[in-house]
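SEVERITY: medium
COMPONENT: batch folding queue
REPORTER: lab tech (J.R.)

DESCRIPTION
The queue accepted two submissions in a row. Attaching both inputs and their returned structure tokens so the on-call engineer can compare them side by side.

ATTACHMENT 1
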Amino acid sequence: MGVSLSFMGVRLSEWKRQNMYKVDLPVDESEQRAVERRRAAEAERKSRIFNSRSRVIGVDLRALHKQQEDKRERLEMEKQLDMAHDLLRLSLDETALQQKKEEDELRRELAQDMVQFRAIHQRAEDSRDADINYDRQEAPDACISVSDSALGPASMQVFLGEGINENEKKRAEMEMNERNLRAQKEEREKQEREKKNRELLTDRELVEKDLRAVQLNALEEECKRVARIELSHYNQDQAEERMERERQERLRREGEDLAELRYTVTSDLLTERPEAAKRITESSAEGPRVLTDRWKGMTPQQISDIHRKRDEQCLEKERLREMERQRDLAWDYHLTEQARQQEREETRDKELQRERRAQLDKYNQQLAREQQAHQHYLDKQLYTNRPRVQYFTQFNTSSR
């Protein structure tokens, strides 16, 4: 009983703690809308994937257009993001430059304030050791208001040996400072004179270079002018020489044409002299030959020789034709014998193939009977629990 009461107390405390801060807040519907949007996308994807017409016949044009639009929107969004980043980068750069300028101005004002504060509140003559670094001739009278006999050893302001030859030391120090300042001034004047001399030398060298450049330009222009004049003279000479060559060539061609015309008019070709066709060149290495350009026809002896040669060639051709016919007959008989032998071999091969095919058919029938017996064993004895329609409908229910 005590355990049950303690358990109930624990449950009551938990319920109070859970409902203590529970208020009527508005329900956030963004998650529910996102779930509905994903469910609609999944349903649309399933309808597109399991549509056999669009899957088997061709591509899904709507999906391709949707992908193109998504890619275009993504590229446009990336472009806008890049532009926004560029604008943000420019604004950040301007802000950084303005901030740096303000920091420099603040640092400069702080430095000026520090210098002014030191000049007003941290002067060297107001420090504790001012009497050591400055003139202390009037210090005992200004600082000590009582006599030395009334003061103890710890109240002494001026000790023995202090202030001895201080004026000489200051004078020597001032002379040394003057010498140093004079030496620095002379060194600076010397450096300025050397710098001025270097500038004068540099200016002189520049002037000399400019004068040299002007002279070189003038010489170059003069050389170009002379070269142009020489080139014009050379071109004129070449033109005159070419005109002279053309004139000589024209005269030569006219002379050759006249000579050829004269030779053609007086040649044996146009005159047609009968004795020109009987001329025989005995000086040729090939023996006597007839000038074909002056030949007027064959003699009867030459015509009879041609007919005799033609008859001899016809007889020789007939003899060769008979020999070719005999050779063709022998070759045909040989081909016939080969064909018969090949036909006998093909018949023998067909018989052998027929026997092998019969043996193969018997073997295939035996294998078929064994396969049918094995299939009957599988269907009737081994696989008796066949799947129903519910087994196949559990697949392809989601697009993932």
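ATTACHMENT 2
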Amino acid sequence: MASTLISRASRRFLKYSFPSSGLSIQYPSPSVFNPLISTEPSISINRNFYPSLGPFGQYHHQDSEFESFKTVRSLSNFQFVQHISTSPSSLKEGSEGNKNQSGNVVKANISWIDLYLPKQVQPYAQLARLDKPIGTWLLLWPCMWSITLAATPGQLPDFKMLALFGCGALLLRGAGCTINDLLDRDIDTKVERTKSRPVASGLLTPFQGLCFLGFQLTLGLGILLQLNNYSRVLGASSLLLVFSYPLMKRFTFWPQAYLGLTFNWGALLGWAAIRGSLDPTIVLPLYASGVFWTLVYDTIYAHQDKEDDLKVGVKSTALRFGDFTKEWITGFGIACLGGLALSGYNAEIGWPYYAFLAAASGQLGWQIWIVDLSSRADCNSKFNSNKWFGAIIFGGILAGKLVS
């Protein structure tokens, strides 16, 4: 009796239609459903059309139509996975995403923060731009240049000091981003690249942002207190630049120059942390070269937002230079390299430094020459490449000091 009822229930449950292709099926047992793509229905396999299915639905017969179907489903899985990336360059705000089948741009907006950090922490990590380390590198390289220049000839730089400045660059860059987002929250909502930032989008309130800023500055103070008294005063004085920089684009077309003064303060502070004073003949050309370098990379970066900047009414060197941008940043690049050469000469650094400087000039010239200022993606790519310029200069200073 029981077996009869089970048999009838099974026959009723296994009803389905027989289209010519054998794929319009309501049979719910071995399902080929991708749960990551919610818009696609659950499609099952017709046992009568595919007689070689095993007891658990495994398919053995090499039917071309079904293989094509599986290939399409696999590609859809890959299409989803390719949008999940932990590479900072693929997550840079303003970068162009991939296009879907309808031609619409799909932006990759999933980073390691979304994958690995608790949800309560994610907005703060995004506020500090922890998933976009390029800013930390650009802030850190002038510090490392200066610390290495101040090292004793023939010896490696102070690794403890390099580590302290590395942590300080991470914290100060995060604090600067927090200040910027708090002051610009009304502007950020009107700019495509920035409207998803935590404060502008409402993920964090301004009060929460202020509390986080206090936390970052407290940690930064702990690092600053590890330095000598001269460096403490010099480091604390940079906070005026950090707090005022976000306001500059409201008043001048040269906010990138002001950013250069801010971001390259480490060229002064690194030397002072090692020597306890400043040598103007070495650190001032180094500092000036960093400012000119910033004018190059941040002008390229500003070209991503020039349309939005015009609508909102803020200023930048990208708008100031317009079609003559490449001529301007070429001049800044030459000034940057000249300052680096003068600083190395005054520091009596060894010959390998100049070989590295020649390589760095090639990298800088390459990005200026081929950057497409009308392409947000290319501007972003060239901007990110500046971490390699900083690394080449650091390698040159290190090699030059070891042989001097």
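NOTES FROM REPORTER
Confidence is low (pLDDT under 50) at residues 5-108.
No errors were logged for either attachment.
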